[in-house]
């Protein structure tokens, strides 16, 4: 592939707020701030890969134009999360005046929920003192880890996971640009695996496209190192029908032939239980058992023994359903 070394996540990152998909209400509010050039401190919260950092970069581009790099500082708080970073690097940048006709600069604190409590308390005073020359954008996965005094100083935007429609929209755009053949089944598989994370979806597409120009369902599951949901559902149906040996054969295929880890298989079992045509009370019992065996795996128990025990419990529950 001509540009195999280039990371598509960066190559196709939206340059304008209008290009961000799946967050229409948030985009509309942010565009209002940008048009008036009246921007408060912002707090972006939500799952990974939903457009938080992209939205901050788009705001900087639309506010400052070609001079956006001179007026924008991005810090990853998970790497530089101590109080010294706030007292030196952030404060030194915040006290200098911007270039151009916008009266303030922007500081993006990526993964700000990783900031230490001391750093957050130092930051809240800095946000007040230099508000005439600088605006802060904090993005995080968990807003509850940001102290209340900072939250009260910010306009809070909560990003949600992206749906299959929005992921498909972006994947088709990339496929056209890269001259790929992308099947509908591959799009559904990528959406299933990525679980609303656009960054993961694009990386999956690039990994699958590195194998061949036609991206189909099989190539997607191969590069993702995940089982096809149909295989997991079939294993569950066999165990609930009391066919333990056949269900165990399916499990061996996933563990040995496909090389999947026990934790990944258990996570997929949890997802597929919700898709089974069973009474709610039965699903409750199955998920309760999955939770118990997930704890055992995290404590270091044998993957094969614990997963076979899961199937054995499902067989017993299935037997009770018949009586």
The biggest sheet, with number of strands, parallel, antiparallel or mixed sense and barrel status, is: 5 strands, parallel
Low-confidence stretches: none
CATH topology of the largest domain, by name, is Rossmann fold
In the CATH scheme, the class of the largest domain would be Alpha Beta
Tell me the strand order in the biggest sheet: 2-3-4-1-5
How many individual helices? 15
How many distinct domains?
A: 3
Corresponding CATH superfamily of the largest domain:
P-loop containing nucleotide triphosphate hydrolases
Intertermini distance:
59 Å
Instruction: Indicate the radius of gyration in whole angstroms.
Output: 24 Å
| Broad shape | elongated
Quote the average pLDDT. 89
Provide a descriptive summary of the structure in words:
- This protein has helices at 8-11, 24-36, 52-64, 83-94, 117-129, 148-151, 164-178, 184-194, 198-209, 217-224, 229-240, 244-257, 262-273, 280-298, 303-322; strands spanning 41-45, 72-76, 105-110, 134-140, 154-158, 181-182, 214-215.
- With 323 residues, it is α/β, with parallel strands linked by helices.
- The protein is 56% helix and 10% strand.
- The model has no long low-confidence stretch (mean pLDDT 89).
- A 5-stranded parallel β-sheet has the order 2-3-4-1-5, with helices on both faces.
- It is elongated and about 75 Å long.
- It folds into 3 domains: 23-158, Rossmann fold (3-Layer(aba) Sandwich); 164-224, Helicase, Ruva Protein, domain 3 (Orthogonal Bundle), CATH 1.10.8; 229-322, Zinc Finger, Delta Prime, domain 3, CATH 1.20.272.
- Helix 4 runs parallel beside helix 5, helix 11 packs across helix 13 and helix 14 packs antiparallel against helix 15 (303-322).
- The longest helix has 20 residues, at 303-322.
